[in-house]
Amino acid sequence: MVEVLEIKSDAATEAWQPLFNGRDFDGWEHVGKGRFVIEDECLKTEGGMGLLWFTPQKFGNCTIRIVYKTSEQQSNSGVFVRIAEKPVDEWFAVHHGHEVQICDTEKDYHATGAVYSFAAPTSAPMNPAGLWNTMEIVLNESRITVSLNGTRTTEFESEQSVPKREHWYEPQEGWRPNAGYVGLQNHGDGDTVYFKEVSVKKSR
């Protein structure tokens, strides 16, 4: 049975739980093309499109902290949350989870900080390529709140109306669970993104 990390916390559960240990892929599996490699204690995307996902547990109400940097402004990646079940291929998370986008050259619903295709960011506080960014994703029941470098960028409620799907690569509408797996995307050749921290903290 898959463990679900759930809501309540107290002083003993305030600490961040690292999901990536900086040394190996313990707890992680990859599906799809391309791969992740470990370089200088960071996860580095290579090729794609693929998905690296954390296998031991699903996450319910919590905050997910991602520290990342892009190699170029157009570098593309994403953080997947609420992946409903074990992903069988690189597209499962797109249609059965939510992606918080990383791509500084995209606009609106596809921009960095967006809940991809569903909710656009209201600000763009990302650092330039080559500098580290801290993204925090708060999961609270059916709500997703995204902050980047200390500035709140995006609010998404699963019941809100979303734009009509226009492209084949955009996610299908439909139910997503309030608790699911977490994953990182390797998008394609030339889209190099580094992740040096992937951590989770239970909600208060």
Q: Please, could you describe this protein's structure?
A:
Helices cover 2% and strands 42% of the residues. The relative contact order is 0.29. The strands form three sheets. Strands 2, 4, 5, 8, 11, 12, 13 and 15 form an eight-stranded antiparallel sheet that branches. Strands 3-6-14-9-10 form a five-stranded antiparallel sheet. Strands 1-7 form a two-stranded parallel sheet. Residues 6-13 have low confidence and may be disordered. It is globular, with a radius of gyration of 15 Å. The chain has a single domain (3-163, 174-202), classed as Jelly Rolls, CATH 2.60.120.560. The longest helix is centred in the middle third of the chain and has 5 residues, at 92-96. With 204 residues, the chain is an all-beta fold. The chain has one helix spanning 92-96; strands at residues 3-5, 17-18, 28-32, 35-39, 42-46, 50-54, 57-59, 62-70, 77-83, 98-102, 133-140, 143-148, 151-157, 181-186, 193-202.
SSE map:
Layout lengths: L2 E3 L11 E2 L9 E5 L2 E5 L2 E5 L3 E5 L2 E3 L2 E9 L6 E7 L8 H5 L1 E5 L30 E8 L2 E6 L2 E7 L23 E6 L6 E10 L2
Parallel strand pairs: 1-7
Antiparallel strand pairs: 2-15, 3-6, 4-5, 5-15, 6-14, 8-11, 8-15, 9-10, 9-14, 11-12, 12-13
